[in-house]
Amino acid sequence: xxxxxxxxxxxxxxGTPLVIAAAGEAVSERAGVLxxxxxxxxxxxxxxxxxxxxxxxxxxxxxxAGIGA
Length: 69
Description:
Low-confidence stretches: none
Order of helices and strands: HHH
Radius of gyration: 15 Å
Number of helices: 3
Structural class: mainly alpha
Shape: flat
Strand content: under 5%
Number of strands: 0
Largest sheet: none
Distance between the termini: 41 Å
Helix content: over 70%
């Protein structure tokens, strides 16, 4: 039973960014734009946010860098 609960918790925590990206792609596709590089965009934003937050020590600058990426 605990293995099943752990699996469900892992699916929810690791799948959430992909669900958000898929929802964003659905909205942009309805507008007529096809973006097939969603995973790369997510990785670039995560790396930029982490690197900036680590370098500056400010999590808010990391969030801004992730948004900017």
